[in-house]
Design brief:
The chain has 141 residues and is an alpha+beta fold. 13% of the residues lie in helices and 27% in strands.
Length: 141
């Protein structure tokens, strides 16, 4: 049984990257195929729409690094999520060094810190280009 096998239009979901969202499209069950995108979610942040597989894998993730990033809102417990600001803002040089080592985290629009390799590449590029270094930190051990 896949996590989103019973997904319906207008259901509330929560993305670890984008935050709160509403399902705006759900492919009928008889037309679904494993590995293909079967529903779409529109997020409050900038009216961003993301398509997902039946397992909750987003359209922006690579095949090698696929992981579920969206959940039914009623199933998510944010109490143990880290949303604290960084204790030290890294420099441009440190950000690049951490990225190369795979230990760079970015604060997503949802407020949650995620490794940049688990987020849309455009999030990192936009924050870096606009010198929003406060959105980055070294991954906690």
């Amino acid at each position: 049984m896949h996590y989103f096998s019973k997904v319906k239009v207008r259901q509330e979901v929560f993305s670890l990257v984008y935050g709160n969202g509403i399902v705006v499209f759900a492919l009928p069950k008889e037309h679904r195929l494993d590995g293909f995108y079967v529903f779409a979610v529109e997020y409050e942040e900038k009216k961003n729409t993301v398509h997902y597989t039946i397992d909750g894998y987003p359209n922006w993730s690579s095949a090698a690094g696929c992981c579920q990033t969206v959940f039914y809102k009623k199933d998510i417990d944010l109490s143990d999520m880290d949303i604290q600001p960084p204790s030290k803002i890294p420099s441009e040089k440190q950000i690049l060094k951490y990225k190369e080592k795979g230990i760079l985290e970015i604060q997503c629009p949802s407020g949650i810190w995620k490794n940049v390799d688990e987020c849309p590449e455009k999030l990192m590029k936009k924050a870096f280009k606009k010198s929003k270094y406060y959105l980055f930190r070294k991954q906690k051990d």
